[in-house]
Amino acid sequence: MKNLKFLIFITLLVSFQLAKSEDNKAAIASAHPLATYAGFEILSQGGNAFDAAVAVSAALSVVEPAGSGLGGGGFWLLHRASDGFQTMIDGREKAPLSANKNMFLDQQGNVIKGLSKDGALSAGIPGLPAALVHLSDKYGKLPLEITLQPAINYAEQGFSIGERHRKLLKFRLAILQQNKSTARIFLSNNNVPKEKALLKQLDLANTLKQIAKDGKKGFYSGKVADLLINSVQKAGGIWTQKDLDQYKIIEREPVKGQYQGVKITSAALPSSGGVVLIEALNILSTYPLKTLDGISRKHLISEAMRRAYHDRAYYLGDTDFVDVPVQRLINPDYAAGLRMTIRQDKATPSSFFAGNSQEKKGGHDTTHFSIIDKEGNRVSATLSVNFPFGSGFVAEGTGVLLNDEMDDFVSKTGEMNGYGLVGGLANSIEPEKRMLSSMSPTFIEDETRIGVLGTPGGSRIISMVLLAILDFAEGNGPESWVELPRYHHQYIPDLIQYEKGALTNDEIEGLQSLGHKVKEKKYRYGNMQGVLYNKKFKTFSVASDPRGEGRALIR
Ligand code: DON
């Protein structure tokens, strides 16, 4: 009798698990509901996660033009389930052939304000179209005619703009008004359109169709390329056909590390994300963070961020152009040395390292999406045009809004870029070099769980992902990662920036008494998109950042 009861109990438990098992499902989290739907649409037509990634990326180009687009670039971290192969598709923009390290300086050698952020000269050669073609050709199952179709539909039929879109238009209004072809598409009577206004982008639909038909050539040569080059040159930019001809996608080996039983796979250079993340996590790896009081915990995490961001400023750049001691920086022994310089009772002033300190704004654009399909293929992708609506410049007749990613280079040693980041020679401008990024598409994995995550947020991307990884290590899932109140230290400026609610009054006082400067941000930042698969229960959990307007679904 006892045995029978036990048997029934086990049968019920197993059937409950089976009923709940989501093994035939997929999960997508992205910054816009229409982009998430586009991904599922492609999965339902027999596509895999990589096809879905093409569809989501292209849809985001249309429905979230402030964040990313055909005129920009990004990093797609891939995991192929059949053989466990992992790679990073580097579709980062690169400097035009006639760029040079003084191109944003005046005759006295001072930075000309705005030149690396606004208008045609601020745009690097886009990588996103080439990346979509590469992703589709090499990893997808469906042709681009199918995977680009949802984006083409959104561009042709239009969609209703959200509050976030309007807010960012307002933020960049002055520059958007200066360019007629931009204003014609995105503004209404040269102003921010009404709530829920319909945005149609017919030129962009045509450009997408060219790519669907001719692949890379549809963008980098022929009619679209002619239009791009003519309007860039007319507006004082320096692109040539040779720049477009020479743009190439590079596959790079992701950066890997471990933190207290969690395996981390993240972006390789030219994104600083993986190196900075692993270095900071290595520093933190021996502290019992979970059991510490809030002040000590936040002090140590901030000190680890300070040291890792310091190394970012001094060592990191495009490895095709400069030697970077990556293996040293992500070595646990190197971190052990840095850990010894951290005092539990005192903040280390950043001036002990070098540099100056002011603060810059930023953190509202760029985009991220996370996908796991039913086979277990994964994509973590962070895409960008840099500032909201990039350079504010649409190349006439293409609908393509160009990035202002040139600002991610160091215009002058020691001078801060739009995100307050400093750097030196490793990230100075050179023809064809890729500018250093902070985008950190990441996979995390422990015995039972697989996580896929990332976020926009300029220099704060890495610290947001770091906090989410620490949260994962403490057993929490995407709902918690995306909600977490955020704080951040980036070495320069020498302060802990935080969102309302991230530090209690006691923690503020405590951190100040250790010598930290703290500063509450006026706005909440980031737009994290997370997906988690539980290997034991075969279930998903997903979440989209409450700060944004995204959608995370399991289907
Ligand atoms: O590549 C980078 O690090 C920056 N261009 C990302 C910009 C960004 O995340 C802006 N947004 N919030």
Hetero ligands: 6-diazenyl-5-OXO-L-norleucine
Strand % is 15-25%
Radius of gyration (Å): 23 Å
Q: What is the strand tally? A: 20
| End-to-end C-alpha gap | 41 Å
Assign the structural class, choosing from mainly alpha, mainly beta, alpha/beta, alpha+beta, or little secondary structure.
alpha+beta
How many strands, what sense, and barrel or not for the largest sheet? 7 strands, antiparallel
Helix run count: 20
As an assembly, this protein is single chain
Strand order of the largest sheet: 6-3-2-10-9-1-20
Low-confidence stretches: 12-19, 355-363
* Shape descriptor: globular
**pLDDT averaged residue by residue:** 94
Helix percent reads 25-40%
Number of domains: 2
Structure description:
With 555 residues, the protein is of the alpha+beta class. It folds into two domains: 26-251 and 366-427, no CATH class; 253-362 and 439-554, Orthogonal Bundle (Serum Albumin, Chain A, Domain 1), CATH 1.10.246. The protein has 20 helices and 20 strands. The protein has helices at residues 2-20, 33-44, 49-63, 128-139, 144-147, 149-157, 163-171, 173-178, 180-186, 202-214, 217-220, 222-234, 241-245, 273-284, 294-315, 326-329, 332-339, 461-473, 478-483, 505-513; strands spanning 27-30, 73-79, 86-91, 159-160, 198-199, 250-252, 255-259, 262-266, 367-372, 378-384, 393-395, 400-402, 442-445, 449-453, 487-488, 496-498, 518-520, 529-534, 539-544, 551-554. The strands form five sheets. It has a seven-stranded antiparallel sheet, covered by helices on one side. A six-stranded antiparallel sheet has the order 7-8-13-14-18-19. A hairpin with a 4-residue loop joins strand 11 and strand 12. Helix 3 (49-63) runs parallel beside helix 6 (149-157), helix 6 runs antiparallel to helix 10 (202-214) and helix 14 (273-284) crosses helix 17 (332-339). The radius of gyration is 23 Å and the shape is globular. Residues 12-19 and 355-363 have low confidence and may be disordered. Bound molecules: 6-diazenyl-5-OXO-L-norleucine. Residues 363-366, 384, 386, 405, 408, 437-439, 456-458, 461 line the site of 6-diazenyl-5-OXO-L-norleucine.
